[in-house]
Design goal:
The chain is 86% helix and 0% strand. With 149 residues, the chain is mainly alpha-helical. It has one domain. The longest helix has 37 residues.
Length: 149
């Protein structure tokens, strides 16, 4: 599977996950589910930018993608902190939701598998780069140098 297909798989899953979470949040009035859905769409935005950067050879676009993904992590950290502080200050826990529990369980099953798949793909790509580096100089150039007295 290609990098693009892995990212598209991540995008599709996160769009579905976010939609279900936000629907369940509206139905149950759960702030935690709403935050879970919002997180899914932050991941969609990050994956979209990474997918866009794969279609370009520009270092500026790659740098932008790295910064954007970092920004989404910061936004998520702030959101989780604010939500946590709000819940602690009101001394209330999260409401139970069968949909929320099922969604969390599905994510626990699916997302680590996708992450492992991505890591294996990245390792295979790095291995190919190392093999290319170990080939040494261009063999055609060596042939030309041998012929030249």
């Amino acid at each position: 599977m290609s990098a693009r297909k892995l990212i598209l798989l991540t995008l599709v899953y996160n769009v579905l996950e976010g939609g279900v979470a936000i629907w369940a949040a509206i139905a149950s009035g759960s702030l935690a589910l709403a935050a879970f859905g919002a997180d899914s769409y932050l991941e969609v935005a990050a994956a979209g930018v990474v997918l866009w950067s794969l279609s370009s050879r520009s270092e500026r676009i790659e740098e932008f993608a790295e910064r954007f993904v970092g920004l989404t992590f910061l936004i998520l950290a702030v959101a989780v902190s604010v939500q946590g502080l709000a819940v602690i200050s009101r001394s209330e826990g999260a409401d139970e939701s069968v949909t929320g529990i099922a969604l969390a369980f599905a994510s626990l099953l699916i997302m680590p598998g996708i992450a492992i798949w991505k890591l294996k793909f990245a390792a295979a790509c790095n291995e190919m780069v190392e093999r290319a580096r170990n080939l040494g100089p261009n063999p055609l150039r060596i042939k030309e140098e041998v012929k030249t007295p």
